[in-house]
Amino acid sequence: MSGLSNDNAIRARFRLDYPDFSLDVDLQLPGRGVTALFGHSGSGKTTLLRCVAGLERSGRGELTVNGEHWQNNAQNLFVPPHRRAIGYVFQDANLFAHLSVRRNLEFGMRRVASAQRRVALDQAVALLGIDHLLERMPDRLSGGERQRVGIARALLTSPRLLLMDEPLAALDLKRKSEILPYLERLHDELDIPVLYVSHSPDEVARLADHVVLLEQGRAIAQGELRETLARLDLPTAFSEDAGVVVEGEIASHDAHYHLTRLAFPGGEVLVSQRPEALGQRLRFRVHARDVSLALQRAEGSSITNLLPARVEAMVAADTPAHVLVRLDAGGTPLLARITRRSADQLTITPGQQLWAQIKTVALLG
Amino acid sequence: MLDGSDLAAIWLTVKLASVTTLLLLLLGTPLAWWLARTRSRLRGPIGAVVALPLVLPPTVLGFYLLVALGPNGPIGQLTQSLGLGLLPFTFAGLVVGSVLYSMPFVVQPLQNAFEAIGERPLEAAATLRAGPWDTFFSVVLPLARPGFVTAGILGFAHTVGEFGVVLMIGGNIPEKTRVVSVQIYDHVEAMEYAQAHWLAGGMLLFSFLVLLMLYGSRFRQGWRG
Fold first, then answer.
1. Are A246 and A332 spatial neighbours (Cβ–Cβ below 8 Å)?
2. Is the pLDDT score of B220 beyond 50?
3. Measured over all CA atoms, what is the biggest interatomic distance in chain A, rounded to whole angstroms?
4. CATH no., domain A243-364
5. What ipTM was predicted for this assembly?
6. Which fold has domain B4-183?
7. Hey, which residues does A249 pair with through a beta bridge?
């Protein structure tokens, strides 16, 4: 729990009342890694992010980031946004239209004392692959390029906390996949804690270490990514989209069948051949609807990914015809969405040992 | 052709319009910023007062200014006690009248420009460590530049075109308060139609060119997207 000690963590307690919406959260978040604020639109995730930035002045409460007090209404303390060491990435980049890309990047950098700069212009430009755009005006950039400039601009203030408000939401699928690798590099190369607002389970699964689930202005769950996604008691689990995230290591490549073997605690899966080297870690998502259950190890099936697993619990799913089963596959949590009829035929009970057949996995990366 | 008194009137008009425009940009900028951003209940009343010269006959504004600036008016007593004397029938008096009369033509384009900028660039600036003053000079002013151009041109042109307010509080004193519009009136009264033509035609051309500049530049901006 060292990541949650007081001077290396984010304590955020906010109350805000609008006529049609209220926010009431009390969060203790890790002071490192990527924390996703996840929820449907209208759940308050952007409002919460704006409160942390100090852009939402009507939010009352208390905010401490890695030992620095930024807000405490009980003590009349409110540090204005320009004195908070944050970087903010807006949903649609929000670049200054009157400045070139270079001047946009320098805007924040020049306002930070040089002794406190920890990210150099060249470094940010290289990290986000925007060196060929420096002399352009923002209206000559594509959506994906604009977003990368916005991220670099925020990084160049050497923030102690990076706030990202659905940086991919305004982009189409192709642009999304163009930016995601940069976000992952950010995560791997810079040690800046990130609060990442998103409503996309795939983005969260790919990028986050920690998840806060928001609904109607309340935090209904929070915790480590894999644990939280595998929980059965949360409303997201009751959607068709239920599933877990597993991180595996590339154990071998099979050149003949063009397959790659990914090993993780509790088993392994075969996926289409990957370009990454042996030992490389990859995250993948296993949707509950892609997991079926069998009492015996199925022979003569086209499904190659079979894992021994133990039933932990079972609850109603999103339709009356289905149930969600939570499994423990040798330390890796899994969810299976099967029909109630199958569950009865297999007499699913907690503690039961059976085989999980994984039809397909979605690689995130 | 133009004679000496015509040239003096033209020079006086240019001087009056320049001083007025400069003062209006200095005073109008904070006022327009306030009007664009405030949530105060005073926003409506103050906005209406600024817009009054748009609908009032200039004689009404001129009459009240004359009373207020006169020896028994509150402002007149103030200027006298400050040793400034009385403003009516002086150049300074004309400037005061022109500033009030042309106020909406400067404040409204600025207010529109500020409102069009919206909250978002200000928020971006704040998250990039720029304080409010810094943001105003490094983000708001450059983004509002078309608004300043429009405000300056309209303020200048409208001051050049005023007549009623000038006549009420400036009178018709050569080289002190006799501006072009008054000079034309004098020529017409004296049946000097040829001289009136030169000045009136000049004003027509000037006004057309100013408006062409305004709409031409608007068009260019629109085209550039």
1. yes
2. no
3. 70
4. 2.40.50.100
5. 0.81
6. MetI-like fold (1.10.3720)
7. A263, A281
Residues in chain A: 365
Nearest CA in chain A to B132: A82
**Cross-chain Cβ contact B127/A86 below 8 Å:** yes
pLDDT tens sequence across B82-122: 888 888 899 999 999 999 999 999 999 999 999 999 999 99
Residue B219 half-sphere exposure toward CB, CA atoms < 13 A = 6
DSSP per residue over A114-126, as a string? GGG--S-HHHHHH
**Structure token digits, residue A58:** 């009507």
Contact (CB<8Å) B125/A82:
yes
Q: Cα(A213)–Cα(A235) distance, rounded to whole angstroms?
A: 10
Percentage above 70 pLDDT, chain B = 96
Chain A hits for B133, Cβ within 8 Å: none
- Phi first, then psi, for residue B34 (nearest 5°) are -65, -45
Determine the Cα–Cα distance for residues B110 and B160; give it in Å rounded to an integer: 20
Q: Shortest CA distance to A234 belongs to which of A246, A245, A220?
A: A220
Residue A186, SS3 per DSSP? helix
Q: Indicate the fold that domain A2-231 takes in CATH.
A: Rossmann fold (3.40.50)
Q: At what angle do helices B145-160 and B193-224 cross, to 10 degrees?
A: 170
What are the residue ranges spanned by the domains of chain A?
Answer: 2-231, 243-364
Which pTM does this prediction carry?
0.80
Count of CB contacts below 8 A, A vs B? 63
Instruction: State which residues of chain A have pLDDT below 70.
Output: 1-8, 232-240, 365
What count of other Cβ atoms lies within 10 Å of the Cβ of residue B143? 20
Is there a contact between A350 and A365 (Cβ–Cβ < 8 Å)?
Answer: no
Band (B223; pLDDT cuts 50, 70, 90): very low
Return the pLDDT at B222.
39
List residues in chain A touching B: CB distance below 8 A: 53-55, 80-83, 86-88, 90, 94-98, 107-108, 111-112, 139, 153-154, 157, 163
Helix H or strand E segment including A221: strand A218-224
| Residue B210 DSSP one-character state | H
Nearest to B85 by CA among B69, B109, B102, B66: B69
CB contact under 8 A, A96 and B129: no
C-beta separation of B109 from B147 below 8 A: yes
